[in-house]
Amino acid sequence: MISTMFDVITKLSSYAMVIFFAMFVYFKTTGKHGKYPYGKYALISLVLMAVFGTLFFNSPKGKEVIKKGNAEQAERTEKAVKKPAKKSTQNTETAVKKELNATHTLLFDHQVKLHASQKALTVAVTDKSDTTESFRLTTIGILKAIKKTDYDRYDQFTIIFNRNVGNGRKRTIVKTMVTKQTLRKLDLNKLETNQLKSKADDYYEIK
User: Fold this and answer.
1) CATH architecture entry for 92-198
2) Where are the domains of the chain?
3) Compositional bias (Basic and acidic residues) at which positions (predicted)?
4) Are the C-beta atoms of 173 and 185 separated by less than 8 Å?
5) d(Cα 60, Cα 55) in Å, to the nearest integer?
6) DSSP state of 163
């Protein structure tokens, strides 16, 4: 019951934040005067969303959602391992997109941008509502998806989770970079979210 309440409050706060922010932007750009301080309401909604979102993911139901996502990712990996050994020809970018479309570790809407240079692949996800722990879990899921593909053309992989802060600006919440050599060595089925910092070649997380 408590978990459901946290979940509902988180989602309602998210919707309220979007509405209040839209109203704030509207009155700001038109020069009209609103009846209420929509900017303050949007900020309060954001704080409520962050607080109750954290409480939800620390509740039994929230942990069950995370556990379910991990179990499904582990099952997909296990099936891939059991198949006859042969080099995958799956496109790495396509695999990443499929993983982000199917993941259960991101509960809210998110936008994905992939940039592939000759030697590097960058995955940038903009998400307005999910928690830092969700971003860590999704990072591991993306690395698993990459590892199932023929990824040898890339020397390094960077996975970034951003949050919109208004006026077209974004704030980086979690950023992980691993080289091809590191990815080969990682046992992603045993990798915990609190090990990302020590196992990655470069890791940043907002304080």
Assistant:
1) 2-Layer Sandwich (3.30)
2) 1-79, 92-198
3) 70-81
4) no
5) 10
6) E
